[in-house]
Amino acid sequence: KEDLDNLISINLRAGRKASEATAYDSAINYLELGRQSLTFPENYRDLFEFYLLGAACKYQTGRYEEAEKDLDQLYARCETRLDKLEVLMLKVYMHTSNDEKEKAVEAGRLGFALYGLYMPRSKPVVMLAVFKDIIKAKWLLRGRRIDNLPGRSIMKDPEQIRFLEFTLAVSPPSYQFDQNLFAWGVMQMVNYSLKYGNNGVASFGYMGYGMILAQSFGDYLTGKKLADTGVLINKQLGYTVLKWKIGMCYHNFVQHWTQPVRPEFDNMQEIINGCLANGDPIYAGYGIFHYHQKKFVLGFPLPDLQQSYEDYLRVVDQRGDLETRHFLESYYYAIRCLRGIEDNVLLMGQSFNVKERLAQIVGSSSFSCAADTYIAYINILYQFGYISEALENYLASGRFMAFIYHRYEYAEYNFYGGLICARAHEKKRSPSRPYLAMLKTHLKNLKKWSEYCPDNFEPKYILLQAELARITGNTGSTATLYEKAIQSADRYLYINFKALANELAGRYHAGSGNSIIAKTYLDNARNAYMQWGAIGKVRYIEKEFGELLGPSILDKTQVGKHISSLQHIDLSLVLEASQAVNTAKDIDQVIEQLMQTVIQNSGADTGYILTRTRADLVIKASYNTTEGAKSLSEYPDADRLPLKSIRYVARVKEPSIINNPSRQTEYSALPYFALHQPQSVLIFPILKQGDLFGILYLENYSNEGVFDSNRIGLLNLISAQIAMLLDNANLNMNMETLVKERTVSLETEKEQLSDLLKNIFPKEAIEELKATGKTTPQRLENVTVLMADIKGFSRISEKITPEELIGMIDNYFRAFDWIMGKYGLEKIKTIGDAYMAIGGIGNTLDTGAEKMIMAAIEMQHFAAAQLPGIDGKDKVELRIGIHTGVVIAGVVGAKKLQYDIWGDTVNIAARMEQNSEPGRVNISEATYQQVRDRFNFIYRGKIEAKNKGELDMYFAEQLH
Questions:
Q1: Cα–Cα distance for residue pair 755/750, rounded to 1 Å
Q2: Can you state the percent helix, strand and coil of the chain, rounding each to 5?
Q3: Which of 144, 309, 326, 535 has its CA 20 to 30 A from that of 694?
Q4: Has domain 771-959 been given CATH number 3.30.70.1230?
């Protein structure tokens, strides 16, 4: 049983460790093995952790059906409310990742019900509940400044904290299923935190409250202030689990209304990496989508953006993340349409039928994803002149916009919706609909946002103004507004809106008969589209205005060829390397495989992976065209690597791209570059959770410019994976070694444990524990109990330091333990300066009285032999009392077991000690009768003992 318990414990620890290192397959194997010999309800607590952690690992690897089966079995056996909440929380995560929003919300509903909160179902009831909760929050905040919220008391109750974490877990699916339910959940967090105090999750609650005030009530500045407060509380409390979620929400729901988006991309990339590195695929998926969607809106080059989409799509497909794929693919196919790769614009591609995808997304209740898909779709339909279809889908999309109205893309809906309404009004489509009024509503929204942050919204606002002026016949301002829109797009670096503004201006002038001016604007439009990478748009304009524009600007040899500006980078190799690590037997092979993977995907000829140690950086792997990849463990030197540049990158933790360093003044003085003369160099910091893990050093000797910002973007993704793969490889090797070593050493540990038990329990108790796993309380009829303490202990402790006091007590108690062992007696316990022992256990013929008195006399001799302390400190003097009689003995406690004795015998022994004198052994009449012929005694007469009356007492001296 003992061996089995040890193996179960090893498997559980190994499963935890593997899970923490994201080696989920290894973790599952350990956990499945560990739970095989356990049963409910006898091993409930161990099995609960085995099942829950195992299901979590299966969820992380996309094995949803197995995970759900385990969770259903576990939920049916849960013994506490908190345990049920833990199971439901994992279900929420799993259904969310599997794009089953309604199931996730229903799991959330069950969790809230456990705590007496009933999530409303109908929209009017939800909205009323949210309004009441906002009023409640305002009441709880009365008289308080938002600035003072970080200084509130801290929530400490573990179950209250876990309930808030559950509320947080339900937020993502409820946001996509019903915005009002999301607001309801946020207000539960806020009011719960205002009532019971701050904790890490409170930071998200204040962030969400800020979102609600900003978009629902138009109070953007207060909303941002609350969001900033949430970020500050999270930072103050050091709640790193939520750090990346808070960052993601801040950038996706709050920041863009009042601050420019463009400078924040490095922070957004860091958030994605943080989520991936911390095992949070849901928020990583949201971050990946918003990162790319914002790059699309801001006019980043389409070829590079397409490649980035493809790289991330491979990652989410390998992970089985259907939800993130649905978010990404609409804009991915929009890019392919703009680039002219997809011919079937009405469906956004031959292999992607947007109408079928929308039906699937709506059917899964992923309504925010439906909103984003519609926005990408109406953008493409408008761009390629399918106005009737654009209008139809614009009108159909309106019911989903409430699910994204906090987000940056909601401005895109207002912009393209306004453009479509302008064309519909102009063509007099469906006269019953007030398209002009709808356009003005969109324009009003863009005006408001543009006033708060012109960097993000001004070009769209001015261009929509120009369209309104055009369709209302305001010829005096139309041309001017188009020109202002072009200038605004140029000022804020929107090549895409610059292209569109030129196109619309050209169409306006062409329709007015000003062909020369029209040609200028249309030429500018197709050049801007070409610069953006939108070859499909260039073709579209040239086809419609070919006579006016003349020869195509497209290179005839490139028509029909759509070559990405990036060399294809196959991230699946990284994922394959990750899978290989789980089964690798040789850490050197793993490192070599990683080095090979990096070289294949980076365009480098030579490379090194260096990892950080306490002393310095160490080369762990190298690659060159002659030897290939090989593992190493060497310190680098200046002849082999440019250490000055590498250490600079290690210090600032920022990548460095160097083209032809031998010709740059800054680098030409370094002997390494002068000697080796690489054409392209990339020095990249490998970070894990923000800390430097190592350095990736890459060179290309043939071409300059091989390493660019796109390589940086990819390496930002895979560098965290490199760190985790190396950690996982070490973990797997260590775990295998650990299990082998533990199996071999079980007998040694058993002996050590037996020795340890002998120091804690009597032999009889140990044997019973081994046989039955527990002890039965025993009545010991005739045993002898010793009590000893130090005279004037309090006075002594005031005169010496704590260290000296502990050292003194340890010295005496160690000697007493040795003396007890010498006479075959058992120490029971120590309490402060008091020492208790017993004799006669397990031997009905011997009370242990004689041995106990001999031991007591030896204890007094030891104390007498100790010299007075330094600086005249008091010499320690002992008082000892002994009594023989009946006691009850047994083991008590759930975790820290304690063998103890109870009964009147113990009390009388204590009275003997209290009435003893320093240096003497005071015994009772009962003990005296056991040994009267074996020692010299001094009869002290009857002495009053507290609560015991008068008792006969004797001082015991040496043997006859």
A1: 9
A2: 65, 10, 20
A3: 309
A4: yes
Reported as a pLDDT band with limits 50, 70 and 90, residue 63 is confident
Instruction: Look at residues 499, 406, 510, 417 and name the one whose alpha carbon lies nearest to residue 459.
Output: 499
Kindly report, residue by residue over 591-619, the tens digit of the pLDDT.
777 788 778 777 788 999 988 876 678 88
- For 213-270, the pLDDT digits (tens) are 877 777 788 888 888 888 888 888 877 777 888 888 888 888 899 999 988 887 888 8
- Is the distance from CB of 324 to CB of 289 less than 8 angstroms? yes
> What percent of the chain clears pLDDT 90, i.e. is strictly above it?
32
Q: How far is CA 490 from CA 147, 272, 412, 868, in A?
A: 38, 29, 18, 89
Helices (H), 611-662: 643-652
What is the domain class of 591-720 according to CATH? alpha beta
Average pLDDT, the chain: 83
Neighbours of 250 (CB within 10 A): 23
Burial of 946 (0-12, 13-18, 19+ CB in 10 A): exposed
Domains of the chain, by residue range, sit at 1-79, 105-258, 591-720, 771-959
DSSP secondary structure string for all residues of 252-305 = IIIHHHHS-SGGGHHHHHHHHHHHHHTT-HHHHHHHHHHHHHHHHHTT--HHHH
> What pLDDT score does 925 carry?
94
The strand pair at 878-892 and 921-924 is best described as parallel
Whether the CA torsion 594, 599, 605, 606 is positive or negative: it is negative
Name every residue whose Cβ is closer than 8 Å to that of residue 728 and which is 6 or more positions away in sequence.
Answer: 18, 21, 22, 23, 26, 578, 581, 582
Q: Which two tokens stand for residue 601?
A: 């995907």
Residue at token pair 């056991």: 930
Please report, as a single letter, which amino acid is at residue 639. D
Instruction: Give me the phi and psi of 897, to 5 degrees please.
Output: -65, 145
Nearest to 159 by CA among 56, 83, 104: 83
397-421 per-residue burial string, b: 16 or more CB within 10 A, e: under 16: beebbbbbbbbbbbbbbbbbbbbbb
Amino acid 768: pLDDT: 64
Rounded CA-CA distance 651/636 in Å is 17
Number of Cα atoms under 13 Å in the Cβ half of residue 69 = 5
DSSP 207-250: HHHHHIIIIIH--HHHHHHHHHHHHHHHHHHT-HHHHHHHHHHI
Query: From CA 57, how far away is CA 853, in angstroms rounded?
Result: 62
Which residue type occupies 95? Answer: H
